[in-house]
Amino acid sequence: MSITLSDEQNVYVQTSGKVILNACPGSGKTTTVAHKIYSLIQNWENSFSASAGIVCLSFTNVAKNEIAEKFREINGFSLPYPHLISTIDSFVNSYITLPFAHKVKDIGKRYRIIDDMNYLNNVLLSNCNLKNQFGTLLHQFEPSKIDYTITNGIAWDGHDKSDNADFVKYGKAVKTIQYSYGLLKTSDSAFFALHIFKKYPRLAKYLAAKFPYLIIDEAQDTSEIQHSILEMLYNEGLKNIDLVGDPYQCLYEWRDASPELFLQKFDDTENWKGIYLTENRRSTKKIIDVFSVLRRKTDKAIVPVLDSADDLPLAISKYEKLCHEKQYDSNIILVRGNALKNSLLGKESNYKPWNTSLPDLLIESKIHLQSNEIKEAVRKIRRVIIGLFTPDISFSDLKEKENELKNDKETNSTIFNLIRGLPSFDLSLKDWTSQAQQYLKTELELLNEPDFAIRKKNVTKKGKTLFDKATLDNPVNRYFKKSTTDSNIPITNIHQVKGMTFDSVFLILNSKNHKENITLTDFNLTEPLPSEKQRLIYVAISRPRSLLCIGVPNTIADHVLKNQFNVEIIIL
Predict the structure, then answer these.
(1) Per-residue b/e over 183-220, b at no fewer than 16 CB within 10 Å?
(2) How far apart are CA 255 and CA 47, in angstroms?
(3) Residue 22's beta-bridge partner residues?
């Protein structure tokens, strides 16, 4: 597949050393990275050992798969060994932490990476020593959210607590117990990797020789610890590092992502080669002008490659009709927070008719199937089935069994048919529960029906009814339904669409200013860098190709909107 690169893209492809690529939305970042990899491997053995390779790392499996697929699409073949496209967490786990963690803290057994925070919480909450010494703190501050900082201090949920001596004592006790079980979160793995490099710099030297060219995609999501790992690799001989990303799309500060470090490196012209990608191939100029108000004034202006002279009418009440009339195929309604999302869908939030998660997983899997999200539907029920047949299975054995069955076509086909045959959501909750329990027993040939533990009594708290048993006579689909409008336009949270492209986007703002809400005032950039809410807005409004609709409270005057956006807009 032949693609002509822009001048900016060619500059990046041809530049080596310590490179930082600041890529605006819609600039073809993934395509550019794939071309860079292809360009490097053409003359690889002229500059590097045949046994050495490029390693390209991103933050999610979706992102790394997109790079691999784009490389294959452009070049007609998959990236060959010894080159590697992976996630940064998988790379750190596989090449640094898991093989060498015992060198910095030997517990007499192998460590394992855990991604189930509920399981980790249950393990730590049931520890007698922690309960006896830190009972109050243990229940106020979930132990799974505790991490070491880069300076060996203690943080909880991304907030540094190192100045609180009692909390530091609690945090270090939690980590000691957690590590004694051999359980590491991905953040723990990065912390271990940094200390492994500090104690054994020759390992960093070995990896720098094995992978002499490192590309980090979505680098704005890199944590301070991960940045330190990269610096140690560079200091031990890695001379080629590309950091690729958009600092305004950093949505993971809760896991210590640091867009400030990305920008500091971009501005550090003595040590880094900063390159812009400013050509937006997705949105019209007027859409670009709207989200550009959230960028630094010193940033290079984004240039629309595809512009449209005609703005389309923007209106809340006519959005679905507008999409239909203009024959837009990919449309999305975006909100922040499940409360507003549930309100739009007519769902009652926090409705829990069962005391177990099993029926919720069954319903979620059926909804995934109805939405053609087959892999996610099958994944959820695979774990359910394993649990039904082996209720006392350990976490490590569960993960091993899941991996074993993941590519088993017969098992996946059975699971698909099981989901498809679940009782109708038109049934009452009471009848659906009874029929679903019997259905599972019959289809899976269980000795006994699984117990969904349906609630049988009203639940009240401080005079407020949290659950009314009379609601069990209502149909399932009153409380559980597809996250779409009547015209099948998806309604979802902004976090779910990062990196995606749509014909149109409808961002709905809240009327009340609250820490969890996004309002019109959040469009005002008052600091040198945008806040977390502003980066969410930036991601949301940089997704569409042709039409951006913003829903605002009707109490806001027209002149306020015109002054706010400073571009030609249509108000309906």
Answers:
(1) bbbbbbbbbbbbbbbeeeeebbbebbebbbbbbbbbbb
(2) 37
(3) 245, 276
DSSP 3-state percent helix, strand, coil across the chain (nearest 5): 50, 15, 35
- Let me know: does 305 contact 25? Beta carbons within 8 Å: no
Distance CA(394)–CA(417), nearest Å, equals: 27
Looking at residue 273, the DSSP 8-state letter turns out to be: E
CA distances from 371 to 329, 374, 376, 477, 505 (A): 15, 8, 10, 15, 19
Instruction: In whole angstroms, give the CA distance from residue 157 to residue 71.
Output: 37
Three-state DSSP state, 259: helix
Rounded Cα gap, residues 126 and 121, in angstroms = 8
Take residue 420 and report the two structure tokens written for it. 């498809």
pLDDT tens-digit map of 422-458: 999 889 999 999 999 999 999 988 888 999 999 988 8
Side-chain-facing half-sphere of 385: CA atoms under 13 Å: 22
Element containing residue 85 per DSSP (H, E): strand 84-87
pLDDT (average), residues 341-369: 78
Tokens at 368, concatenated: 């995934």
305: which residues sit within 8 A by CB, 6+ positions away?
279, 280, 281
The residue ranges of DSSP E strands in 116-161, in sequence order, are 146-148, 154-156, 159-160
C-beta atoms surrounding 180 within 10 Å: 13
Q: What pLDDT does 308 receive?
A: 37
- Of 43, 19, 519, nearest to 234 by C-alpha is 19
What does the radius of gyration of the chain's CA atoms come to, in whole angstroms?
26
Helix axes 128-140, 117-125, angle to 10 degrees: 120
- Which residue has tokens 């798969």? 65
Distances (CA, A) of 487 to 244, 323, 332, 344, 482: 37, 10, 11, 13, 12
Residues whose CB falls within 8 Å of the CB of residue 118, separated by 6 or more in sequence, listed in order: none
| pLDDT, tens digit (0-9, with 9 covering 90-100), for 489-513 | 888 888 888 888 999 999 988 777 7
What single-letter DSSP state applies at residue 131?
A: H
Structure tokens at 557: 């005057």
d(CA 303, CA 462): 57
Mind listing the pLDDT tens digit for each residue in 154-173? 999 888 999 999 999 999 99
The tokens of 236 are what?
């031990």
Residue 5 CA to residue 26 CA, distance in Å, equals: 14
**Cβ partners under 8 Å of residue 258, min gap 6:** 222, 223, 224, 227, 250
**Residue closest to 509 by CA, chosen among 571, 549, 553:** 553
329, amino acid identity: D
Token reading at 230: 């990269």
For 9-23, the three-class secondary structure string (H helix, E strand, C coil) is HHHHHHCCCEEEEEE
Tokens (6 digits) for 494: 């902004």
Q: Burial of 306 by CB count in 10 Å (0-12 exposed, 13-18 middle, 19+ buried)? A: middle
Task: Record the pTM.
Answer: 0.65
